[in-house]
Amino acid sequence: MPDRTPSRPAEPPVSADPRREIQELVTLRDVLRYAVSAFEEAGLHFGHGASSALDEAAFLILESLRLPVDDFNPFADARLTARERTLLGERIARRIEERIPAAYLTGHGYLTGVRFRADSRALVPRSYIAELLASPFFDGSDPDTGLIADPAAVTAVLDLCTGGGSLAILAAYAFPNAAVDAVDLSADALALAAENVADHGLQDRVRLLEGDLFAPVAGRRYDLILTNPPYVGREVMDRLPAEYRHEPRMALASGEDGFDLVHRILAGAAEHLHPDGGLLCEIGEDRETLEDEYPQTPFLWLPTEHSDGEVFWLPAGSLPKRGRATAAR
């Protein structure tokens, strides 16, 4: 999901044409240097898996050339073919001119090193929940801080607002004995999720369901519910950088304050959890707003490498018995 702070105003795109200028370059290192300069001059916004022009350029180059994306150095001095220069010139130009996220240009994104298909049918894969699933909170490695003692004992997981299915797939890896139900209201997003599930060979463990939040799983209970729902309020939606406007609006917007879906999830989660289960939910940077609306609810905020207070955990017994319910998106 996007950050909540306004981006700096975008500067006019560079007047030079990357499609033409890149033909003068020789190595991947040359293209990296050129792309970083061009991205900085164009005032691009980074928030779809990369946090800087350097990271964005390295990802775009390596993924476009089907090279491992975790280390640029082994390929830095490799010479480019004419076809490769043309491909990279086109993608660098479109990144600047159209503000398309790099994952959409390459067709793939990564979460915790796992590769997923990405296109405009769903959000670019990104969520702090991915890091948490692989952390001592959920991997069974630390009995003192763990929220799930034994990942192998988890047999049923629900992923609400699954989008392209990345969190449902990561949950299937994190909990090897779990059947995962993944729900979304968008048929387009679920079609992308089906491709990702097939890529990972998890068709027998991840079930994709179309519908509004808990409606497709009436009567079912789970050991874990996880969700990265839409949580962007109206004012923030109005000033989103252009990169986010390539993503489905319904996957971002959630009412006036951004919490319409969160309220409904809090209202319905208890009746879909086993007594010793819990809810893991990402809500962005408005922690204080949520706590003010639920003063008696003991949210446990879980930190990650790049976030603090954006994902909460609630055991089934601590969920509000009745939460605010708003109209379906």
What does this structure look like?
The protein has 329 residues and is α/β, with parallel strands linked by helices. Helix content is 31%, strand content 14%. A seven-stranded mixed beta sheet has the order 5-4-3-6-7-9-8, covered by helices on one side. It has a two-stranded antiparallel sheet with strand order 1-2. Helix 8 (187-199) links the parallel strand 4 and strand 5. Helix 2 (28-42) crosses helix 3 (53-64) and helix 2 (28-42) packs parallel to helix 4 (82-97). The longest helix has 16 residues, at 82-97. It is elongated and about 65 Å long. The two termini are 17 Å apart.
| Portion in helices | 25-40%
Principal-axis shape:
elongated
What can be said about the biggest beta sheet?
7 strands, mixed
SSE pattern: HHHHHEEHEHEHEEHHEHEE
Distance between the termini: 17 Å
Strand order of the largest sheet: 5-4-3-6-7-9-8
Q: Overall mean pLDDT score?
A: 92
Number of E strands: 9
Spans of 5+ residues with little confidence (pLDDT < 50)? 2-14, 323-329
Question: Which structural class matches the secondary elements?
Answer: alpha/beta
- The helix count comes to 11
CA-atom Rg in angstroms: 21 Å
Strand content: 5-15%
